[in-house]
Amino acid sequence: MGKIKISAGDVVVQARLYDNPTADAIRDRLPIEGRANRWGDEIYFGIPVAVEEAPDANDVVEMGELGYWPPGSAFCIFFGPTPASRGEEIRAASPVNRFGRVEGDPSVLKAVKSGEKVTVEKVQEG
Hints:
It contains one helix and ten strands; from the N terminus they run E-E-H-E-E-E-E-E-E-E-E.
């Protein structure tokens, strides 16, 4: 488990990591920087982490979830419908390994534009 801070432009959110191998692999590589790509209400960017698709990977995720997209080695933040969504669901391009969730209101991420620098770092707890 543990917390991370995600900064992009003027937006800063914290997220809690799940207890799974994908979260462990990403936490071990922090801090990570990338450039935001927008796909509907998803931000994604490539990261230097290689993890296989998890047995419980899914293309439908919940608001505020963090996902790792194995085909593109990408860190994904979901905060609303994407072009692949059907109705109100939040759907990734293909199955992602869910590894954390944004704390608070993830809709603040709508202010992040493609090309902005994104920094992900550990938060010291306690």
